[in-house]
Amino acid sequence: MSPAPEAAVPTVEELEAQERRLVFRRFTNDDAWALGSLLVELARERRAPVAVDIHRAGQQLFHAALPGSTPDNDAWIARKRRVVERYGSASYLVGSRFRAKGTTFEESSRLDADTYAAHGGSFPVTVADVGVVGAVTVSGLPQVEDHRLVVEALERFLGE
Predict the structure, then answer these.
(1) Separation of alpha carbons 123 and 104, rounded Å
(2) How far apart are alpha carbons 5 and 71 in whole angstroms?
(3) I need a surface site. Which of 7, 35, 39, 98 has the fewest CB within 10 A?
């Protein structure tokens, strides 16, 4: 996957629309396995050196480390997932909101950068009439590509 042109970077409004659209009716352990497996399949097709992780309610339901990924990807996953858990929004959206205000997450969030990373790749698992129950996270590509890979998998999984 090559980096997208700057014009293709999604806006805050587009990112917010993705979150409104990509909502589950339910999210079971089997759903986590199927979604994670789909993400691995998409990543393998692209020879993407990523790690994939799905958490729900503090429990890891799925994890895979594809060839070329490293332990550092797991550290990024944890940092990005914590942003979703704290803000209830995609890690890329959180970072984009700070950038839209003329600052950065690192400068203005007052959170430890070793614990939180508002970089693309972690997306909330939202269940209708419940709210955010977890996160699906990818690490290993440039942040906008990590985000796009997760969104593509969610769109396919949810039949969009």
Answers:
(1) 19
(2) 29
(3) 7
Handedness of CA 92, 55, 22, 19 (dihedral sign): negative
The pTM is what?
A: 0.94
CATH topology of domain 10-157: Beta-Lactamase (3.30.450)
Q: Cα–chain-centroid distance for residue 138?
A: 6
* 27 and 50 Cβ atoms separated by less than 8 Å: no
Which tens digits make up the pLDDT trace of 110-130? 999 999 999 999 999 999 999
pLDDT 10s digits, 57-114: 999 999 999 999 999 999 999 999 999 999 999 999 999 999 999 999 999 999 999 9
